[in-house]
From TrEMBL:
Lineage, broadest ranks: Eukaryota, Viridiplantae, Streptophyta, Embryophyta, Tracheophyta
This protein's name: Vacuolar membrane protease
Keywords (A to Z) from UniProt: Endoplasmic reticulum, Glycoprotein, Hydrolase, Membrane, Metal-binding, Metalloprotease, Protease, Transmembrane, Transmembrane helix, Vacuole, Zinc
Cofactor field: Zn(2+)
Name of the gene this protein is made from: LOC103703854
Metal-binding is among the record's keywords: yes
Domain of life: Eukaryota
Length: 715
């Protein structure tokens, strides 16, 4: 951004619009920096358009991954950028909720109604928020790629006389038909068109495809209809066998490897672990369909051309079955296109390309107008022409998507131990099977008659066996010095039981957002007496540790009881509704998280020094709790007031004596305060951890010293 500002200042001739550079923090705590700027800064009223520069990796191309509501901006970017890069499939994943994340652009869109573009690096996603996420590891080419594209776009937009009009239209809001569909081809050219045009194009292709299929089936008569059904069966069997084998491998991996995701450091292992069984399964399922097709066609050809010799007849049957297998690929892509078009999914263009290009190639090179004409073997040129464009457009996208998915597993579990160990591999398995069944269906149809089927099966079995062996023996470790496992080492002082006159519990907790046990990690910590398992659930307010390791040995040093935060009830009264005023004293901490029980509390206000920070009304709830996260500077206040308004079904304070004993375990407030301090126990643990472990640096994670306290419902 600094280099862009320097470049723009030298080229700022004929500008009709200003360019503001906003440097802000507080994103991880809740997009606070962006919210502060757009709601409080005097320049915010002049903003008409936003460009958000993001990173969820350490390099690669800076690609556009959100911005469909601003087609004019994407068209401009595609026209002026030197190396335009962007895929709407990333935007679809964000909008679907599959990606549990948000960016500053969301604040500008929801709070100010602005449109904008979101760019991000996504290579080496596994290092995100770890010690390897360093500026020195960012490739200069990645910065150059972003800089050249963005400088050209900013200069063009700043000089545009149409900018105010275009941005104004977007701010007023548009229909879904004006959403932009975009994708790049090898990072050299970007295709951009509107949802309206996409719908027209998709509807046209769908209608023509249905017309061709209906005409073909009518001309083919009853045999054609049965062959069509059997080709559909081959598709179903292909998916079943491919999914079954890859899912089986996903369940086997945690039993064979020390890590349930052993491919994080070496993503190419996925080719052998999941790609090979996916191809084996798809080929097997298609072969079964091929067998049934040949069996039926043998019956048809005996009646149709009984005078032909047996060898000639067998060749015709195999060629006819091969053609039906090839055409079965059209069926699944047509179904995806219909579904995607109905739900207005931007990445439906993939279904369009994978349907139209092979169908056009088949029609050009293979199709005949007469059903009485005998079939011939498929030509290799048909496959090459049919797959050239789809592979060109989607190969890079799929490779990057696989890399991103694998990298995400380094911090997959928001609440450690909450998901089964095999879940990450199951996701990769299903994705791999889907890619193989969708994109290799045309290629696999050629293998059955090529004589290479046995060789392909042997190669896939060998590749699977070798990668499983490599994973089980640790030849390729799951984590390395450069691609480390994300762990947290936190000295916890748990004072949640103090209202029951219990002393605070002190221990060091070791847990990881990366799936898998911590057995290898604690091997070097035997003298620290760590115990691991799921029998000690730890509530950190914003997340829960269901599996981890903990040690109480020598844990009473490095902290003081005076530093334990307090939740003090100043008043509790009943008029029309019950009202409670609570003083929150976070002591040393200027960074904390508070959870309010929304099943008991209908509303609340939040104050500091008599200034209302959170007004009443519009309180959200997740699993029955409303979460407040606070992060301040050195001079930040540490005392706050919380005014609670109870739900109408709560019981009057005078009735507390009649409460059952088990109700005292219910909590009204939960507080976690974070102190950036390393206790002697934590320091020893950090020194003894393996070199392939890295503290998880996400700023919503606890610091190395955390205090927990709570206020029960029956205080």
């Amino acid at each position: 951004m600094l280099e862009l500002a320097r470049g723009i200042s030298q080229w700022a001739h004929g500008f009709k619009n200003g360019v503001i550079f906003v440097f802000n923090t507080g994103e991880e705590e809740g997009l606070n920096g962006a919210h502060s700027f757009i709601t409080q800064h005097p320049w915010s009223r002049a903003i008409r358009f936003v460009i958000d520069l993001e990173a969820m990796g350490i390099g690669g191309k800076s690609s556009l991954f959100q911005g469909g509501s601003a087609p004019w901006a994407i068209e401009t970017f595609a026209k002026v950028a030197k190396y335009p890069s962007g895929q709407i499939i990333a935007q679809d994943l964000f909008l679907s909720g599959a990606v549990k994340s948000a960016t500053d652009l969301q604040v500008y869109q929801e709070v100010a109604g602005l449109s904008g573009l979101d760019f991000a690096y996504s290579d080496a996603t596994a290092v995100y928020h770890t010690k390897n996420d360093k500026l020195k590891l960012l490739k200069p080419g990645s910065l150059q790629h972003l800089g050249e594209n963005m400088l050209a776009f900013l200069l063009h937009t700043a000089r545009s006389s149409r900018f105010q009009k275009e941005a104004g239209v977007e701010r007023e809001g548009g229909t879904g038909q004006t959403q932009a569909i975009y994708f790049d081809v090898l990072g050299k050219y970007m295709v951009v068109y509107t949802q309206r045009f996409a719908s027209m194009l998709h509807n046209s292709v769908i209608l023509q495809s249905l017309l061709i299929w209906i005409t073909s089936l009518l001309m083919g008569g009853y045999p054609g209809a049965i062959s069509f059904g059997l080709s559909c069966l081959s598709i179903v069997l292909m998916w079943i066998f491919s999914l079954s084998l890859t899912i089986l491998v996903a369940f086997i991996i945690p039993l064979m490897s020390t890590s349930p995701v052993p491919y994080i450091a070496y993503p190419w292992l996925v080719i052998g672990l999941f790609g090979a069984p996916a191809i084996l399964g798809a080929l097997t399922g298609q072969h079964v369909g091929f067998f049934f097709l040949k069996k039926y066609l043998r019956h048809v050809y005996k009646k149709r051309v009984p005078r032909l010799s047996h060898n000639v007849q067998e060749n015709l049957i195999e060629w006819e079955a091969e053609r039906w297998l090839f055409k079965s690929g059209f069926i699944q892509w047509l179904i995806l296109l219909v579904v995607g078009n109905f739900f207005k999914v931007g990445s439906s263009f993939l279904a369009l390309i994978w349907l139209v290009s092979p169908a056009f190639s088949y029609g050009l090179m293979e199709a005949t107008l007469s059903p009485s004409r005998l079939p011939k073997q498929l030509k290799i040129i048909t496959l090459i022409l049919g797959l050239a464009m789809p592979v060109l457009v989607s190969a890079g996208m799929i490779i990057r998507l696989v890399g991103t998915i694998i990298g995400v597993f380094a911090r997959f579990e928001r609440s450690p131990g909450s998901a089964p160990d095999w879940l990450g591999s199951l996701i990769v398995a299903i994705f791999s099977a889907a890619v193989v069944c969708l994109m290799l269906v045309y290629l696999l149809s050629y293998i059955h008659l090529s004589g290479a089927k046995g060789l392909v099966i042997f190669a896939m079995c060998t590749l699977l066996a070798l990668t499983l062996t490599a994973v089980s023996t640790g030849i390729f470790p799951a984590f390395t010095e450069d691609i480390s496992r994300a762990v947290n080492v936190v000295h916890v002082v748990d004072a949640t039981g103090r209202y029951g006159n219990q002393d605070p519990a002190s221990f060091v907790s070791l847990f990881s957002a990366t799936p898998g046990k911590l057995t290898k990690e604690v091997e070097n910590l035997k003298d620290e007496e760590f115990a691991c398992g799921k029998n000690k659930t730890l509530d950190f307010v914003t997340f829960t540790v269901n599996y981890g390791c903990w040690s109480s040995k020598d844990s009473n040093n490095g902290w003081s009881k005076l530093d334990i935060p307090e939740l003090h009830v100043e008043s509790d009264s009943m008029s029309d509704i019950r009202k409670t005023r609570v003083l929150i004293d976070t002591k040393l901490a200027t960074r904390w998280s508070l959870a309010v029980n929304r099943e008991e509390i209908s509303d609340f206000t939040f104050e500091v020094d008599s200034e209302e920070l959170v007004p009443s009304g519009h309180k959200s709830m997740v699993d029955g709790w409303h979460i407040i996260q606070f992060s301040g500077g050195k001079n930040s206040p540490t005392k706050f007031h919380l005014n609670l308004f109870w739900s109408t079904n709560t019981i009057h304070p005078s009735q507390k004596a009649y409460k059952q004993a088990e109700d005292t375990a219910s909590l009204l407030l939960k507080l976690r305060t974070d102190v950036n301090m390393v206790t002697p126990k934590v320091e020893r643990v950090l020194q003894k951890l393996p070199h392939w472990c890295s503290l998880f640096g996400k700023s919503t994670s606890p610091y190395t010293l955390a205090f927990l306290t709570a206020l029960p419902v029956q205080f």
